[in-house]
Amino acid sequence: MNQQKMPPALLRLIVIFPNVLSYFLLFGLIIFVITNYETLKANNNLTVWLIFIVVLAPAALYTTFSIVKKIRAGHM
Questions:
Q1: Rounded to a whole number, what is the largest CA-CA distance in the chain?
Q2: Chain-centroid distance, C-alpha 31
Q3: Counting beta carbons within 10 angstroms of the beta carbon of residue 32, is it exposed (0 to 12), middle (13 to 18) or buried (19 or more)?
Q4: Global pTM value
Q5: Residues 22, 60: contact at Cβ < 8 Å?
Q6: What secondary structure letter does DSSP report for 74?
């Protein structure tokens, strides 16, 4: 079975674009929590939003590290 390979530029775009979106989401969450800190604290929702940030930040960083490692190794 002959499988066609994707061009590296397209593969990078497909992999990097969602990673960039995750950073936008992370920064949006941080700005949301900072601007609504008092309201979230008063409604006991601050913990939930901080958990979202704590989970998303390492995931975005790990994905970035993984992409850079694959690009340097020549897989993308």
A1: 61
A2: 15
A3: middle
A4: 0.80
A5: yes
A6: T
Q: Taking a C-beta distance cutoff of 8 angstroms, is the pair 46, 37 a contact? A: yes
d(CA 61, CA 68): 11
Nearest to 51 by CA among 25, 29, 21, 22: 29
Q: Which residues contact 36 (CB under 8 A, 6 or more apart)?
A: none
Whether residue 22 contacts residue 39, with contact meaning beta carbons closer than 8 Å, is answered with no
Direct distance between the N- and C-terminal alpha carbons of the chain, in angstroms, rounded to an integer: 22
Angle (CA) 30 36 37, round 5°: 80
| Helix, strand, coil distribution of the chain in percent, nearest 5 | 80, 0, 20
Which residue ranges make up each domain of the chain?
17-73
**pLDDT tens digits for range 24-70:** 999 999 999 999 999 999 999 999 999 999 999 999 999 999 999 98
